[in-house]
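User: Hello! I'm new to structural biology and keep hearing that structure can be predicted from sequence alone. Could you demonstrate with NAD(P)-binding Rossmann-fold superfamily protein? Please show me the input and the output so I can see what each looks like.

Assistant: Of course. The first part below is the input, the amino acid sequence of NAD(P)-binding Rossmann-fold superfamily protein. The second part is the output, the predicted structure written as tokens.
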Amino acid sequence: MAENQTVRFGIIGCAGIARKVARAIKLAPNSTLYAIASRSIEKAQKFAGNNGLSGTVKTYGSYDQLLDDPCVDAVYMPLPTSLHLHWAVLAAQKKKHLLLEKPTALDVGALDQILEACESNGVQFMDGSMWLHHPRTAKLKELISESNNFGQINIIRSTSTKSVTQDFRESNIRVKPDLDALGALGDLGWYCIGAILWAKDYKLPTLVNALPDVTKNSAGVILSCTASFYWEPLDETVATIHCSFLSHTSMDLAISGCNGSLHCNDYIIPYQEKSASFAFTSGATFLEHHIGWNVRPEEVRVISELPQEALMVEEFARLVKGIMKFGHRPDSKWPEISRNTQVVLDAVKKSIDLGCKPVKL
């Protein structure tokens, strides 16, 4: 590819999240939105028009047409989870680098087929967990890695919840067993599980246990659940997650060590695009007679030049250019992160299916 050529993206599927990523592709300096495909040309053209893309991108009335376009270098795929296996494998076979929306698959067996197709065809894989690419996330990791100020991690708590409408509960793809059978566990729990694994440097827990507060709809799709995670026998960390379509919006991440703690109220989607903060406390204790604390939490603020979704696209495109221009091997970090997340998600689902019995990993 020419030295100044950007990575040309195609978007397969016009889901709501595709609007956000289309904007991110436009903002990322090394990327170009080249084509959009839907199940009909009318839907693709409507998406392009509604997002100010008419005349600047190609539109296709089938996913196959986009995958057959030799000018498309990479695809972003926000399809329902049940469709990922077929179309992701086909995209890899067509030598298209793959940015796949989360949850990546219905189970790790399906994800392994996707990852094998990507590996055997030499294409980069990454899932759409945008928060991992925000500079705040790197700052959080820096602080919890400092043994003097933070120490051994004891407790991790992560939540992702939102209160949905009655129409959502009845007709949204996330509550349809034939489209997104994982429900809130897949849509929101993916972030929670990803956060606890990130905090533990992707060391898998040894025991996973869903709690008996599971709520499902009439079709058996999970609307709300809680789970706990343990790293035994030598690691004393305990983690809990809660994900729900039935509670007010939250996206909290709290991590406590023996010397410090941090709390982030908006770790999945920052309150603002250009800056994000979190509370950090180290060396806290009570004053005499327990009338207060000796320190107040420090607000740590991190500036971001681009939205986190654009940073995700930029990083993905950087890896793609390295493969296309310099013959680099695909970065294995990102598929490994996705697979570990899927393994633990599967364990939560298995625990729920077993009546909330513990599952060993």
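User: So the tokens describe the shape?

Assistant: Right, they're a compact way of writing down the 3D structure. Reading them back into a model, for example: The two ends are 44 Å apart (CA to CA).
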